[in-house]
Amino acid sequence: MATSPDDAVIHEHEQIVRRIVAQRHHDPHALLQVLREVQEACGYLPPAALAQVARSLRQPLARVRGIAGFYSFLATEPRGLYRVLFSDNVTDRMQGSEQLMASMCHRLWVEPGKVSEDGLVSVATTSCTGLCDQGPGMLVNGRAIGHLDDDRIETLCQLMLDRRSLEEWPAELFVIEDNVRRADILLGHGFAPGDPIRAALRRGTQGRSEAPANERSWREAYVGAALGPVAVLEEVKRSNLRGRGGAGFTTGVKWEACRHATGLTRYVVCNADEGEPGTFKDRVLLTSHADLLFDGMTVAAYAVGASQGFVYLRGEYRGLLERLNAVLERRRTANLLGKGILGQPGFDFDIEIHVGAGSYVCGEESALLDSLEGKRGVPRNRPPYPVTNGYLQQPTIVNNVETLCAAALIAVQGGDWYRSIGTLKSSGSKILSVAGDCARPGLYEYPFGVTVRQVLGDCGAERTQAVQVSGPSGICVDVTEFDRRIAFEDLPTAGAFTIFDISRDMFEVARAYTQFFAHESCGFCTPCRVGTSMLKASMDKIRDGNGTLHDLREISRLNKVLLMSAHCGLGHTACNPILDTMKKFRPMYERRLRSRDFAPAFDLDQALARARQMTGRDDPGAHLGNEP
Ligand code: SF4
After folding, report:
1. pTM (2 decimals)?
2. Is there an atom of ligand 1 within 6 Å of 526 CB?
3. What is the CATH architecture assignment of 82-177?
């Protein structure tokens, strides 16, 4: 029987799904990876492909559709041949990203958020793509392009209009610089691949009272009282290393809890989902220091007895996947991964990379674990914590990229050495992602305790009025606070250091961050889902000149509601940028207020807009307050 072209396409999509699912060994936990790979092969996720995924993985179709709808990088409608996502961080906007996007849309005859009529291109925005030091940035079919300006936009438009494949595009378009401006103990480590693992094994040998007799005894020794892994664990505890993802939990304590937890298998998970706008340090560590990261993960596996590791790579860094997989393959060949690592019987550990799909909340460790398991990335109720009930409910440590790199340093140099650097409560160094109004944006690594003022001086910032430390959920410091120190006991940070000079409107900065929270709320709990939208609406209302003091008071009240009832940190911190800037830059809010003492229930003039439209009148006399 003859088949229609549509049938042929459906058949082809089903074949693609079968192949990808088979490569993933029909593992239902690989659902998100399957969907991502099917989308890469088909351009989007057509209904027939979703149905085939459900059949092949033996999952309910509703679940498969639910996952496809949850992640912003997954599309169930056709997209353009070229899929352009402009980075929409505040620094991109400061560098003109909105005008550049409008210019591209105009040139290509496409509306933002839609597909052009000829199916050539779709253009939209996404939250920060981690290119703030070389912005404005964008992703085209997942590949990063920075330094956008009018000339680059024209070049890109022409390449798309000529339907040239990305492989034919000039290579310089895709050059992403590391921009390391100041290296310290981590960015300047100089270790060869495997050095930290060799050092860890040496420490283990030195600390062990009697060597295990055979392969089985190594694992038994670990579970019991082996001095080998314990010696490594003790070094990490002695170093007082604290998590670099923002929360600052003590790494050694976390590892120890995992080591002592009951479970069949232990896991090491690297959180490479740095979604905090303004942060890009992981991009550089993953690009140029991947071996140090994998060494750190392997040292962690040795210390806690894990046999499997995962790197959760943010979807925006999808372009690094092949390079990272090549590093993993090289390490397997060198016996730095796999069975009997470096000849140590029973030391079996391997690493797999899982690519995210555009969900900021997956940076929260329990949401990340759910996403790893192929579910929606929604923060779990805690306790229990991942160290006892992590990936597949097994003992799991989740650490940030920078933390694991630091653990590799400690394996070589020791805990006392590490603790001698930094401050009393914050040992070691911190990498800052410096961007915004300064002459030399990029990465700056300092021992903890450096002042904001020194960083500003080093990066060539002038006439600075504020620095947002640790992204939208962090702290906005003004000129009176520039002697504060980057340290857990003063200004803790995951790394973002975004600078605003006196030409910037801090109200607009806070409004951009509020849009970010409203966009990234995962929608799981009502206070955050509704609250972040209300915050955005309030800021837009004030921007439009319709705000009153009542709105400012309402924002403070909303903050209390979110602090009390939101399920995770995103909801808890959603008001931070507004409250900080309202306190420190209040005139920028007050000058926009329509009334300082009157709170209209609704805008009557705005409500009459439709009547004016119907009567074809929009002259000043048709507006309330302008009557003759
Ligand atoms: Fe999701 Fe927001 Fe609730 Fe967190 S607080 S779970 S991001 S809706």
Report:
1. 0.90
2. no
3. 3-Layer(aba) Sandwich (3.40)
